[in-house]
Amino acid sequence: MSDKSEPETTETTVLIGQVLKPRGLKGELKVYPLTDDPRRFLALGEVTLRGGGTEEVLSVRQAVAGDGKMVYLTLAGIGSQEAAAKYRGFEVRVPRAQAAPLAPGRWYYYELEGMDVFDGGVWLGKLERILETGANDVYIVRGGAGEICVPALKTVVRRVDVPGRRMDVDLPPGLR
């Protein structure tokens, strides 16, 4: 129901990758994509490097063998291996408006976190964080009754109103 694509956000940007290391002598950056679809990098015109500034994207390529899903970026102003090495560990971000659209019924974590959660009209608390468990995500809701773990299942999460910052759930017996 939620989507780990671009898992972290600030007021204006969304995290889509992390620079691992320089590659080659001309300043190419090896980036680990933090998005479900690494092809989204192919359409980028510029990126913001967290801890640095906004940089123009000169070229993008994806690994076709070996490490499989890695992306390699060449950015304006980074023309050597030494210059690229300074960006090791930096976050690669894009403006929030450039976040890839999701299918209906799916939301980015940043859209859900902070929502008020209700069960049968009774306020349970605010969705504080989302745990990835493998089978399904779990929404951690904290309110007056303490912490509640809500499974992110269609049978439990009945309605999500992103603009209204509200989620309605139907908790199974014994979960509350």
Description:
The chain has a six-stranded antiparallel β-barrel. It has a six-stranded mixed sheet with strand order 12-11-10-9-14-13, with no helix packed on it. The chain has a two-stranded parallel sheet with strand order 1-8. The chain is built from two helices and 14 strands. 5% of the residues lie in helices and 46% in strands. The model is unreliable at 2-7 (pLDDT under 50). The chain is mostly beta strands and 176 residues long. A hairpin with a 4-residue loop joins β4 and β5 (54-62).
Topology:
Blueprint: E1 2-3, E2 13-23, E3 28-33, E4 46-49, E5 54-62, E6 71-75, H1 81-85, E7 91-95, E8 107-108, H2 109-112, E9 116-119, E10 122-132, E11 137-143, E12 146-151, E13 157-161, E14 166-169
Parallel strand pairs: 1-8, 9-14
Antiparallel strand pairs: 2-3, 2-7, 3-6, 4-5, 4-7, 5-6, 9-10, 10-11, 11-12, 13-14
Please describe the structure with a list of short key phrases separated by commas or semicolons.
2 domains, disordered N terminus, Elongation Factor Tu (Ef-tu), domain 3, 176 residues, elongated, SH3 type barrels, 6-stranded mixed β-sheet, mainly beta, 6-stranded antiparallel β-barrel
What characteristic shape results from the CA principal axes? elongated
User: How many helix segments?
Assistant: 2
Report the oligomer: single chain
Give the count of structural domains. 2
> How many individual β-strands?
14
- Indicate the CATH topology of the largest domain: Elongation Factor Tu (Ef-tu), domain 3
Question: The biggest beta sheet, please?
Answer: 6 strands, antiparallel, barrel
- Please name the fourth-level CATH homologous superfamily of the largest domain: RimM
Pairing-aware structural class of the strands and helices?
mainly beta
* Widest sheet, order of strands: 2-3-6-5-4-7
**Unreliable residue runs:** 2-7
Distance between the termini: 21 Å
The SSE string, one letter per element, is EEEEEEHEEHEEEEEE
Q: What is the name of the CATH class of the largest domain?
A: Mainly Beta
| Rg (CA only) | 19 Å
* Mean pLDDT reading: 85
- Fraction in beta strands: over 45%
Helix content: under 10%
CATH architecture of the largest domain: Beta Barrel
